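Page 37, top half.
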Amino acid sequence: MEKILRFLTQLNLNNNKEWFHSNRKLYEESRDKMLFYTEVFINEIRKFDDGIPALDPKECLFRIFRDIRFSNDKRPYKTNMGSYIAKGGHKLVRAGYYIHIEPGASFAGGGIYLPPSEPLKAVRTAIYENPEEYIELTENENFKKIFTEFYGEKLKTAPQGFPKDFKYIGLLLPKSYAYGHQLDDSAITSDKFIETIVEVFRNLSKVNQFLNEALEKYF
């Protein structure tokens, strides 16, 4: 992983097409390394989450090229590499597992991030009908110790179609159900990198299964 971190550090300092084309070999080597680790994680996740099929790692890895058409930031390349492991890869709305590599800002986690309105309603419906199950999955000591980040904005009032006096209304306010575990650079370059990430994913698997069952039932 040191090679990926070095490449991304240099890219952050030289985020332009000329430098990128001159150092394309570094990019390709880093991409190949990321695909290798993605395949390792796919195989490991399938041991405890049978909802994950035998994916092609290329379906999971996000492109490094930024969409700058509607952005004031015209830098052409992302300064991170990330893979989203879920049924259908990163193009299908499913809860999955995400690994994000960025110097000084890496993390692992997953769930479902900013889903469209209908799948979001499906997740909220499942939580509304089974709040104790969701609380048991996400409020236990081990889960909260690992997943210190909860990503995404929240509504200020009850979402449409749900009663405002629902006892656990706070559970229905998020626009995402995504959870993260921060990783410093030493964790990324450690000999236990794979072991660490797999353990993070293992502790997320039951929550992902809850979310995906919600999508299958209500969406």
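Page 37, bottom half:
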Amino acid sequence: MDARSARRGYRSLIEDAGADALELNVYYLPTSVELSGREVENIYLDMLSQVKESVTIPLAMKLSPFFTSIAHMANRLVEQGARGLVFFNRFYQPDFDLEKLEVAPRLVLSNSNELRLPLRWVAILYGRLLADLAITSGVHTSEDVLKGLMAGAKVTIMASELLQNGVRRIKEILREIEAWMDTREYESVAQMIGSMSQNKCAEPAAFERANYMKTLDSYLPIN
């Protein structure tokens, strides 16, 4: 069996095992100076097409934040058949070991500040694409989950927080979300989804360059 047939077999096994959907996590860093942006996009699209041929369950694609036009690429993936988009793949960066003079892999867990990049793009794309959106970078607290939902995510994905503080955090965060919703008289999560997206925001420019000066003005120096 060749590699392509093997991959097709694994995908079918995942579906047969009872999976309701499949996420394609393309961890690809283009380094060739001759490879164009369009060619990089086509790698993702071709992989999506190949997987769609071998399964019948819905497919989600995990995106890199480094596309020239994230909105256009997201739209192409949806047109190609992606039912969901996950923002963003978090590429790990190599470090240098100055004692051994080697390139050293070092795992650095995320923090809540990393939520802002996927939060922004989910808020911009919500309501513009016929696909469900998910956030998977910087989700650590109940506030992070709430922000993701209000931006337009149907799903917020948590990993680093559970590695640091254990799976007990799931119950704690759910309890905090329920308390927050009760205090503000929210009847359902669906009521929140997309409520602070760009197309529902009173100041849409807050998600774009027009908010630059206001952001600088918000800085408070440490005395």
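Margin note: Strands lie at 22-25, 59-63, 84-87, 95-97, 102-104, 132-135, 155-156.
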